[in-house]
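quick one, 178 residues, struct below
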Amino acid sequence: RSTLSESMTPQELVNHLNLYLTAMTDIILEFNGTLDKYVGDEIMCFWGAPLPQENHAILACKCALKQMDALHELNEGWPKEKRINIGIGLNSGIMTVGNMGSLGRMNYTLMGDNVNLGARLEGTNKQYGTHIIISEFTYAIVKDQVVVRELDNIRVKGKNKPVLIYELLDVKGGYETP
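---
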């Protein structure tokens, strides 16, 4: 975030981001997610590996909603110039997971078209003024358990077929920790 980094010293920025990243990561782990990596203020995580999870999609939805609640609370306690605004993108499908990298340094991470779609949805929040966008593929799995608003049929970079996207608003019965 350029505005964030302009209003703080590098050390203040690191401390501020660490507060945010800690709160968000704690929620991911609470909902049995696997933390992949941090890229600046972005967090990549996934469900369903290293151990299969039947309820991966609803866990991700509940996690996203709880993260938005936690972020709202954090922002309430921060001055305007220190507030963080995020977008979350959720997609479900077959992905490749494993140790990837070089012989000297490996990362346990995720790859594939379905990973890329999730990342694109995260950025799509800006265009729609939303915070959590789920794909039609995630929606198909959780449709009976969530409250959504249909947003659009979009064509994302690298995909020929348009994808139906939804704003995730709530989970029926709340989103308490499993």
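The chain has five helices and eight strands.
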